[in-house]
Amino acid sequence: MATDTQAAPRALATATVMKLLPHPPRLITVDDPAHADGPSLERRDDLVRRLVEREGPRTIAFEGDGVRGTVVDDYVRWGRGTLDEAVEAMKGMAYGPCHGPGHDSGAPDGDRAFVRWMRARNEGRPSGERLRLAGVGGPLESSGAASPRAALTALHGHLAARVDADLLPCTAERLDRLLGADRRWTEPAALTDPARSVGRSADAMELRLLADDMEALLDAWPPHATEQNARDGRPGPGAGDDRDRALLYARTATGLLRRHYWMADASPDRTARLVGLRDQMTAADLLALAKRGPALVYARDRPLQRGRGAMRMSDLPLAWWSAGVMVGARLGGK
User: Fold this and answer.
1) What's the pLDDT score for residue 105?
2) Beta strands of 92-226 (E only): which ranges?
3) Which of 6, 91, 200, 312 stands the most exposed, by the fewest C-beta atoms within 10 Å?
């Protein structure tokens, strides 16, 4: 597995941290506590900047909605949009790099400073040397999940701009009708009452099939076709970026629909399965980052531990395989 050292925000020299690693890592994780004071965040951010300058990760990632993260990434890498829009997108994620869950009121100064720093660092650098920003784990809250609308419509739009219309499994209008109102997907009562979940409705089941078909269409579209599109002047900052974005949309859409399906489950294993699905989404995103090159990941310690996750919720013991175990099984000691 890519080495996943949990480096707490301490005033440690970067060289000291890296000496703990047996080999150059693909993934370095920095523990992101839910509640940290200003000095702790400053020390952590200083450590991260040192790691960036010394070890050269290509991506800085954090727990949160990767689809929203593309708005921030577009700003810090290419200057698209505005700082306010990027910070607003950051605020809408479950976990921002400079604050923990629940700190989503107003525009966090830490997020603003962090985004501004990334943009300033990227300014004037060749595209291959610019830092990316990504989210891992999807737009999830506790045992709930967001609407799959953003991911599904982004995936459909991406494919519609690049393949013949008759290859698509549905129209954008059909997709919109099946999704319906977002409040169906974010019904608070569904957290505790499976019967209130939309996850096993006829619309949701059809959406799962459509998402699978769109993902299969993406898989059938080889990378060299993406490169040809770039030469033909199609939209997107680059061939590799185009495909990475589409794969993110597909992972998020299928992961959210799977999560909603199991939210409608009434079996005793429901909660453990939902927690495990969150770690599966995190693992899939981390593996995608590892393919692209070294990444520095802000994350809580628990999902990335190399052991089986365990906790108690309402006196019910829960156990599941953590994202760290899944990533380790795929990457081994590399």
Assistant:
1) 39
2) 132-137, 140-141, 144-145
3) 312
**Ranges of each domain in the chain:** 1-137+279-334, 143-266
Ranges of beta strands (E only) in 144-213 are 144-145
CA–CA gap between residue 159 and residue 221 (Å, rounded): 10
Those residues with Cβ within 8 angstroms of residue 44's Cβ, 6 or more apart along the chain or in another chain: 8, 9, 10, 30, 36
Helix, strand or coil, per DSSP, at residue 274: helix
Residue 37 in this model has a pLDDT that exceeds 80: no
Question: Which whole number is the average pLDDT over 150-178?
Answer: 95
Q: Is 104 helix (H, G, I), strand (E, B) or coil?
A: coil
Candidates 115, 63, 70, 59; CA nearest to 94 is: 63
- Who's near 224: CB < 8 A, 6+ residues apart? none
Maximum mean pLDDT: which of 15-24, 48-57, 249-258 = 249-258
Answer yes or no: are the C-beta atoms of 14 and 54 closer than 8 Å.
yes
Instruction: Please give the radius of gyration of the chain, using alpha carbons only, rounded to the nearest integer.
Output: 20
**298 with 30: CB under 8 angstroms?**
yes
The answer to whether residue 113 scores a pLDDT higher than 80 is: yes
From residue 211, alpha-carbon distances to 106, 137, 145, 227, 332 in Å are: 34, 18, 17, 24, 30
Side-chain half-sphere CA neighbours of 88 within 13 A: 5
Q: Average model confidence (pLDDT) for the chain?
A: 81
* Cα distances (angstroms) measured from residue 8 to each of 30, 48, 244, 302: 6, 10, 30, 13
Contact 286, 330 (CB under 8 A): no
Query: Which pTM value belongs to this model?
Result: 0.84
Mean pLDDT for 228-251 is 70
Lowest mean pLDDT across 68-82, 97-111, 144-158, 311-325: 97-111
